[in-house]
Amino acid sequence: MFVKKESYNLDELLEEVRHIIEGDLIADLANVSSLLYSALADVNWLGFYILKGKDLIVGPFQGQPACVRIPLGKGVCGTAALEKKTQLVDNVADFPGHIACDAVTKSEIVVPIIRDGQVLAVLDVDSPKLKRFSKTDKDFFEKVVSQILVKLNW
To answer: How much is the average pLDDT of 126-153?
Structure first.
């Protein structure tokens, strides 16, 4: 059971993620996005985009209304999906082709969710602070995605 704390150790938070995933795609992605959004400082949007055809479609998230559809290769999310590689962006204004779903977003990290070489979705996290995300955050979010892949029958 999630207990709101003043601050979270990332290992504790990863353990919470492990405990809330029960095997239902939409419910689990919704709970993971809620848990992480509630626990992490300086985050204004956190959620998932699910790949359908050649577009990423907004899935469970926390934050302001989002872009509904992002083509592969477009913006930070589409680039992460196309390149099958985590994108850590210190300043979204410097990212070629950045899609501004929320004007207050200054930095972003997007982790692709890949099974058997195929992108299934991406985890997208935005912040109103420049350079909000570090290598430690990158490692943490990649571990979150690993837990999602281990525990969900996608």
So the answer is: 95
Closest CA to 101 of 58, 142, 133: 58
How far from each other are the two terminal CA atoms of the chain, in whole angstroms?
Answer: 24
The answer, as to whether pTM is greater than 0.85, is yes
Q: Using only C-alpha atoms, what is the Rg of the chain?
A: 14
Enter the tokens of residue 149: 């892949």
The domains of the chain, with CATH numbers, are 10-151 (3.30.450.40)
15: number of Cβ within 10 Å: 11
Q: Tell me the per-residue pLDDT of 90-139, one tens digit each, with 9 for 90 and over.
A: 999 999 877 877 789 999 999 999 999 999 999 999 999 999 999 999 99
Give the whole-angstrom CA distance, residue 70 versus residue 78.
Answer: 6
